Amino acid sequence: MTFFLTLYRDLTATIADLAGNWLLPLGARFTFAAVLLVYHWSSALTKFSDGFFGFLQPSFGAYYQILPKVAEAAQFDPDMISAVWYPLVLAGSWAEIILPLLIVIGLFTRGAALAMIGFIVVQSLTDIFGHNVDAASIGGWFDRASDALILDQRLFWVFVLLFLAVNGAGRLSLDHWLNIDKSPE
C-alpha cells in the first residue's frame, strides 16, 4: 500500500510541477473569456447612447437594467430620472467593459476579479429584487436541477473569479510581466 501512496504522491507532484503557476490561472482567465467576456461587453454596449460621445451618456436602457425600480418610478421617462443616478449608472456601464478586459489580459487581476464578484452579486440582486425574476430562474443549491440562471450559473462565475482573486493571474499575464503581482513560483 505504501508503494501505491508514494507513486500517487510522486505522480501528482510531477503534474503540479509541470503545470506550475501558469496552467490553472490561464485556464481560469480563458474560461472567463470564453463564457463571460462577450456576454458582459454585449450587455455594456446596450447601456450607452448613440453618437460620438455616447460612451459618456448612459442610455435609458442602462437605467432600466441597473436601476429598474428607479426607471419604473420615473414612469420610464428618462427626463424624470434624477441626475444623482448618472455617476452610478455610467460607472456600472464602464465597469462591465473594463473589468472583463483586465481579467482576460491579466492586468490588476486580483482587484478586477474582486470587483467583478461584487458586480455579479449586485447584478444578481438586481435581477431578483429589481426585475423580479421567477423562482425557476433563481433556482436553489443542492437540488437536482443544475441550470438555474442565478444561483447555479453565477456560483460558477464567482468561483472562477474567486480563484483569480486568491491566486492571481499566474506567470502568463501582464501582472507577472510588469511585476505588479508576482504569484508564487
Structural overview:
This protein is mainly α. It has one domain. Helix 5 packs across helix 6 and helix 6 runs antiparallel to helix 8. The radius of gyration is 21 Å and the shape is flat. It starts with a helix and ends in an 8-residue tail after the last helix. The model has no long low-confidence stretch (mean pLDDT 91).
Question: Could you say which overall geometry the principal axes of the C-alpha atoms support?
Answer: flat
Mean pLDDT score: 91
The largest sheet is: none
Rg, rounded, reads 21 Å
Give the DSSP E fraction (strand runs of 2 or more residues). Answer: under 5%
Could you outline the blueprint of secondary structure elements for this entry?
Elements (H helix, E strand, L loop, with lengths): L1 H18 L3 H23 L14 H7 L1 H6 L12 H20 L3 H22 L4 H4 L12 H17 L6 H4 L8
Helix pairs in contact: 2-5, 2-8, 5-6, 6-8
Quick structural gist:
With about 180 residues, the chain is mostly helical.
Structural descriptors:
65% helix, 185 residues, mainly alpha, 9 helices
